[in-house]
Design goal:
176 residues; mainly alpha; AhpD-like
Length: 176
């Protein structure tokens, strides 16, 4: 399925999502690798098979094999980290001083530019709603030289991809 076919699957009440998906696909504030990785990591985090297939079909060919693997790895590691660090943040107390004791080796050697991996981790953290991870990754990418506009673009991609997945999940539930 193509991105255009995915847009065509959206009902009329989600016209804004159709428009946003189209405009974000041509977003120019991010590099091609940054944009493609944000789309793919966000799609994986959104957990909708149809959205994931369409997004990977559209943006996967724009990435090297290593970058595609890194985008998938960002979704995987943040799927774990967002739950753990959201717990630490919400519960507070001594949990914040305790070692996580979770393997996160991919964070140190993601196989792509560290800044791009951090941006993809930020996008996934937006989908998963982890404030602690959002703050950490936003700080890292801005300190690394990305602009607020680039950060905003990554989160706009994450928000739109997640909303598309939610709409299609709802429509499929109503149809089934």
């Amino acid at each position: 399925m193509s991105l255009e076919a995915l847009r065509g699957r959206l009902p009329e009440y989600a016209k804004d999502l159709k428009l946003n998906l189209g405009s974000l696909a041509t977003e120019e504030v991010l590099s091609l690798q940054q944009k493609a990785g944000c789309f793919i990591a966000s799609a994986l985090a959104s957990r909708n098979a149809e959205v994931t297939k369409a997004i990977v079909a559209e943006f996967g060919p724009q990435l090297s094999a290593e970058a595609l693997t890194a985008a998938k790895a960002a979704a995987a590691i943040m799927g774990m980290n967002n739950i753990y660090y959201r717990f630490v943040h919400l519960v507070g107390g001594e949990y914040g001083t305790m070692p996580a004791r979770l393997r996160m080796n991919i964070m140190a050697r993601p196989g792509v530019e560290k800044l791009d991996f951090e941006l993809w981790s930020l996008a996934v953290s937006a989908v998963n709603g982890c404030g602690m991870c959002l703050q950490s990754h936003e700080h890292t990418v801005v300190a690394g030289g990305l602009t607020r506009e680039q950060v905003q673009a990554a989160v706009r991609i994450a928000a739109t991809v997640h909303a598309v997945a939610a709409v299609l999940d709802g429509e499929d539930a109503l149809a089934g």
